[in-house]
What does this fold into?
Amino acid sequence: MGQLYFESTVALGMSPPRDWVVERWSGGVSALHRRPIPLDGRRRLSILDFEEKALVLGSRGPDPELFENTIRRQSGGGIVWLNPQESTWIDVTLPRDDPLWSDDLGRSFLWLGETIAAAFTELGLKADIHEGTLTGDGVWCFDNLGAGEVKLLDRKLVGISQRRTKRAARFQCVWYRHFVHPPKVPLRNSKGIGWADAGLSCATTLVLDTVVSKLRTR
It folds into this structure.
């Protein structure tokens, strides 16, 4: 699963670096995580399609050795379970000179979380963002709530991690239709919730399209 397929790209807007490039990639989870961060000075929204289940570790987190297909990403945060039937994964890349950029690491997530929350609100869920410091102390991403992550009351709807370089930042976003951990992992104190678990009845593609549409307006 090391080969990547780049399906399409659409440039939006009139004046770089404030236009958006929307692109779709498909391939193995490991190869998708190894994609280099583009340095062309443009905002980029990447939709990542994958076919295999994978356990994705944060850049420094422990490996619980629960699953044979285990990947370590280069962004921080807790462990994420990717299931192609339940998970949606997008990356958002922002150049350092973009007006949306913030040098404050905590605040840098807020614009993105607010935009995604607005998309879910438009679809019928009363989503908002966590604006405080990190809450929770679990090793799993959805056991905790960080600044800018999208929530329904005290349940985490969208997890966001970030990798920064000198010239850009890549925000990695994951949400679920039905929230699940990998097999054999109990859901004791998880804050996670999927949009269908919360009562939203629509197609997965509609959720993705609504998020993409909202991001394109920024």
Q: What stands out?
A: The domain at 4-216 is CATH 3.30.930.10 (BirA Bifunctional Protein; domain 2).
